[in-house]
Amino acid sequence: MSNLIRMVYASTSSNPIETANGAVPRDVGRILMQSRKNNPSRQIGGVLYFSNNFFFQCLEGDQQEVDDLYRKLAEDPRHTHLQTLSVKRVEQRLFLDWSMKYVALDHQVQQILRQHGLNSFNPYEFNAAMIDSMLGLFVRARDMTASSDQQHASAGAVPRPGLLSRLFGRKRAA
């Protein structure tokens, strides 16, 4: 039997995080950088969505590794009110190629919210169908901050800008 699980949880930002012009908020960028640095060694992947000062995150990996990470996340002062929304044993990952995918799809998320009778993004109100709808959208969505990072770069690949440049729109020094 597989020990692979998919855990979805919600949390609230401890401090209001400003979002502007579709850019990745600085605090969210820091979370992404840390996740993308630490998750590969644990063989954990997933997706992160942030809106309305709420985090919605899916973690996939070995049950013990995901449980250990979740305990660490519960102690992280950057967010509060961690609530597990769903835990499923799975045969395959949805986010196999990602240590942490980030999506910023406000318009598409608003459409899903309306379809499910919700007026604003509040993941604490999500039921199983809503969670599945969100994950389905996020699987298909493009991450503007990175390309999938769990595959080896092909020979002759063009170097990509660094993570900070992609997250915060910084230009490389000449």
Concise synopsis of the structure shown:
The protein is α+β, with helices and mostly antiparallel strands. It has helices at residues 26-42, 63-74, 106-115, 128-140, 163-168, and strands spanning 4-13, 45-51, 54-62, 79-89, 101-102. The protein has a 5-stranded mixed β-sheet with strand order 4-1-3-2-5, with helices on both faces.
Explain what the structure shows.
The chain is of the alpha+beta class and 174 residues long. Helices cover 33% and strands 22% of the residues. The protein contains five helices and five strands. It has helices spanning 26-42, 63-74, 106-115, 128-140, 163-168, and strands at 4-13, 45-51, 54-62, 79-89, 101-102. Strands 4-1-3-2-5 form a five-stranded mixed β-sheet, with helices on both faces. Strand 2 (45-51) and strand 3 form a beta hairpin. Helix 3 (106-115) packs antiparallel against helix 4 (128-140). The model is unreliable at 151-174 (pLDDT under 50).
